[in-house]
Amino acid sequence: MAGLRVAITGGTGFVGRNLAERFEGPVLISRRTGHAVDDVESLARAFEGCEAVAHCAGINREIGEQTYERVHVRGTEAVVEAARRTGVRKIVMLSFLRARPDCGSAYHESKWAAEEAIRASGLDYTILKAGMIYGRGDHLIDHTSRAVQTIPLFATVGLREKAIRPIPVEELVDVIEAALGGRLERRTVEVVGAEELKLSLVVRRVAHLLHRRVGILPAPVWAQYVLGQLTEWTMRVPLVAKAQVRMLAEGVSESLPKAESLPEDLLPKKRLTREQILAALPEEGRFGWRDLRLSR
Q1: Residue 105 pLDDT > 80, yes or no?
Q2: Which of 58, 114, 136, 154 shows the smallest number of beta carbons within 10 Å?
Q3: Is the peptide bond before 257 cis (omega within 30 degrees of 0)?
């Protein structure tokens, strides 16, 4: 978007990278660029001269000092304070579709607390309660493709799978860009994909394009929590994090609490077609020792 000076927290992450391509000279904020998301002074220096902030920073598991409280809650409070100090006119926050209070999940509750901090900021804002996001470099298609090449078996999250509505990253970025440009003022909106389906169907579609056979094994939710904990302990990027197990066990197809719908022209329209999956697929390869946290 020509002429708009923006800062992007989580700017080197999956969504942040894709959003940055839409702007000239965006300010990218992340640990990789030397910024701590909860450091008000550092953020204020980065926000100088920016008209809007896309707050995309987030984690799906806690590691050391990178806790949900620090990244989601204190980080968002710091973004708000830095935006006030520097005259930023708009904050667009990327939240999670079912973020809510008092639900027993630290991930969901911290995202909700972050939403509340934005809503109480006194600044213009848009909160996007987004579902599962896919594209090149994502977690959904990337991990699914590597998993089916490693072992020809997929265990469902729950004996009865709940639905998901995956959204292509480019359509999510369309919405963020529109909000940064002034639309969706002081609104909390739901952002989900055009197609509702089950994760096992995504797995089958990916496996088919890779010419792999895969068996679908119904598994109880508790078994996936065990797998999530094990992969959080052992993998650089977990096969599935415990927060993601909670998401899939509930379903990722509608917001909770219910958020507003997008206007018709911003509603995602792309389905998870062969072409969409091929565009998101990484190079062929299995999980291996390099994916373990102990490897160098």
Answers
A1: yes
A2: 136
A3: yes
52: phi then psi, degrees, rounded to nearest 5 = -150, 155
Q: Which domain holds residue 253?
A: 6-288
Give the CATH number of the domain where residue 93 resides: 3.40.50.720
Is 133 a member of any domain?
A: yes
To the nearest 10°, the Cα dihedral for 9, 15, 19, 25? 40
DSSP string across 10-62: TTTSHHHHHHHTTSSS-EEESGGGT--TT-HHHHHHHHTT-SEEEE----SS-
Tell me, what amino acid is at 287?
F
- 3-state secondary structure at position 248: helix
Q: CB-based burial of residue 236 (10 Å sphere; 0-12 exposed, 13-18 middle, 19+ buried)? A: exposed
On whether the CB atoms of residues 124 and 157 are closer than 8 A, the answer is no
Cβ proximity of 279 and 135 under 8 Å:
yes
- Cα angle 215, 244, 210; round to 5: 35
d(CA 50, CA 47): 5
| 19 neighbors 176 (Cβ within 8 angstroms) | yes
**Residue 149 reports pLDDT greater than 90:** yes
Using CA atoms, how far apart are residues 96 and 254, in angstroms rounded to an integer? 11
Write out pLDDT tens, residues 28-86: 999 877 788 899 999 999 999 999 999 999 999 998 899 999 999 999 999 999 999 99
- Answer yes or no: is 71 within a domain: yes
Nearest to 284 by CA among 186, 146, 104: 146
